[in-house]
Amino acid sequence: MGMKGTWRRWTAGAAGLALGTLLLSGCGSQEAKAPTSYDFYIFNGKSENAEAMEEVVDRYEAETGLTIRLFSLGTTDVAETLRSEMNSSAKPALFSTNIGGVMEWSESGAILDLNEASDPELKALAAEVPEPLRLSADGSQNYGIPYNIEGYGLIVDTRMVEELFNLDNPDSFLEDFKAATYDEFENLVNGVDAYITNNQAGDVTLNGETYTFAPSKTELTSQLTGVFAEAGAEKWTYGDHMGNMAMNAVFSSAVDARNASEEQVDELQAPLEKLAQTLDLYSLHAAGMNGPLERGPSYINSSTASYDVSVQLFSGGKALFLKQGNWVYPNIEKLNPDILPTLTFLPIKLPLEQSDIKIEGLTVEQFNQSVPQFVPSYYAINTRVTQREQELAQQFLVWLNTTEEGRRTIVEDFQFIPYNADENVKFENTLNNSLIEYQLAGNTLSNPFNGSPAGGAYWGQEVFGSILQERYYNRAGEWTPEDYRTIAEQAVQGWKDVMYET
Amino acid sequence: MSGYYKKWFWPLALPGLILFAAVVLVPFLIGLFYSFTAWRGTYFVGGSAWSSFVGLENYARIFQSRQFLHSLVYTLQFTAMAVISISVAGLLLALMLDYAGKRVALFRTIFFLPNLLGGLALGFIWQFIYQNVFNRIFGEGGLNIEFLTNMTQDSTKNLFALVIMVTWQMAGYMMIIFIAGLNNIPRDLYEAGSLDGVNMWTKFRYITLPMLMPSITIVLFLTLASSLKLLDQNVALTNGSFNTSMLSLQILRTVRYTQPPDYGQAQAQAVVFFILVAIIGLIQVYITKKKEVDA
Question: Are A108 and B256 an interchain contact pair (Cβ–Cβ within 8 Å)?
Answer without folding.
Answer: no
